[in-house]
Write a structure and sequence with these properties.
With 303 residues, the protein is an all-alpha fold. The protein has a single domain, classed as Orthogonal Bundle (Farnesyl Diphosphate Synthase), CATH 1.10.600. The protein is built from 15 helices and two strands. A two-stranded antiparallel sheet has the order 1-2. Helix 1 packs across helix 3, helix 4 runs antiparallel to helix 9 and helix 7 runs antiparallel to helix 9. The longest helix has 28 residues. It is globular and about 50 Å long.
Length: 303
């Protein structure tokens, strides 16, 4: 994949998304299909649609520092597997108890809770099998690969996505409403893995320290913005747009930006986050155009 000027975020997302989709198919086949029911459950969620925002942002960061893409695909696919596992588990009755995901019945509604749990577990372990398989990479330094694995593991664990989900559950059950807790939930649950996607994309592309720091910060800002937009969609969106039930956050008493600040203030905060993200990468040249387009796309997701 070489740099070509794109005129819309949608075009870039579609281009990279197709490449990631093909990669996911290839890597799942390499893992094998036994037992069949477990493989079907994994494929159902992993290949069941979605815009592949995290892999797309990884490629956009990689492209912005003139990376050659030789090693980006397996890492991008591993991150998407981790994201997919988290959605399967989030939807379970013990968590959010959702019936729809991306406009289709959730994994546990189709395959049962036990298989859904195992599908999530296996996607997570397959992701790290993929990340650590040096045969998939071209001339990558061992220390760089180990750093990338560590970054992604940290963003996925207790100090990242899993910890954020726990905080989200605790806040819902105790009906706590405070800004610092909301920020911590969104940071860990959403922003950390998005920021990690940008950072590893930069590192794989040989970015400088300044570029890597800027892209990671952009990722944090965009991660927060993505979650605020998601909160707004739960209030103002539709099942067709969001692909799941609308108003479920309100029904469960979740701590969200609209619940704490109202719709208008939340939207204003969303657009401030987008502007901050764009300012962070203002010194990048035209190769960062996809990152700028994606920022605007996320900022107006609620429309």
């Amino acid at each position: 994949m070489t740099y070509k000027k794109v005129n819309s975020a949608e075009a870039y997302i579609a281009k990279v998304g197709e490449m990631v989709e093909n990669g996911l198919e290839k890597f799942l086949v390499a893992e094998g299909d036994n037992p069949t029911q477990l493989a079907e459950a994994m494929r159902y969620s992993l290949l069941g649609g979605g815009k592949r925002i995290r892999p797309v942002l990884l490629f956009a960061a990689h492209e912005s520092v003139n990376g050659n893409f030789a090693n980006a695909l397996p890492v991008a696919c591993a991150i998407e597997m981790i994201h997919s596992y988290s959605l399967i588990h989030d939807d379970l009755p013990a968590m959010d108890n959702d019936d729809l995901r991306r406009g289709k019945p959730t994994n546990h509604r189709v395959f049962g809770e036990a298989t859904a749990i195992l599908a999530g577990d296996t996607l997570l372990t397959t992701a790290f099998s993929l990340l650590s398989n040096k045969k998939l990479y071209q001339k990558i330094d061992d220390s760089l690969l180990l750093e990338i694995i560590s970054i992604i593991a940290t963003a996925s664990g207790i100090n990242g996505m899993a910890g954020g989900q726990m905080l989200d559950i605790l806040a819902e059950r105790s009906a706590i409403e405070e800004e610092n807790l909301l920020i911590e939930i969104h940071k860990k649950k959403t922003a950390c893995l998005i920021a990690a996607s940008l950072k590893v994309g930069a590192l794989l592309g040989g970015a400088s320290e300044k570029q890597t720091a800027a892209l990671e910060k952009y990722g944090m800002e965009i991660g927060f913005a993505f979650q605020v937009a998601d909160d707004l969609l739960d209030v103002e969106g539709s099942v067709d747009l969001l692909g799941k039930e609308i108003g479920s956050d309100v029904q469960r008493g979740k701590l969200t930006y609209p619940a704490l600040y109202g719709v208008e203030k939340s939207r204003s905060h969303l657009h401030s986050l987008i502007e901050s993200a764009l300012e962070t990468i203002s010194f990048f040249d035209e190769k960062a155009t996809p990152l700028r387009l994606i920022a605007h796309y996320i900022g107006y997701r609620e429309r």
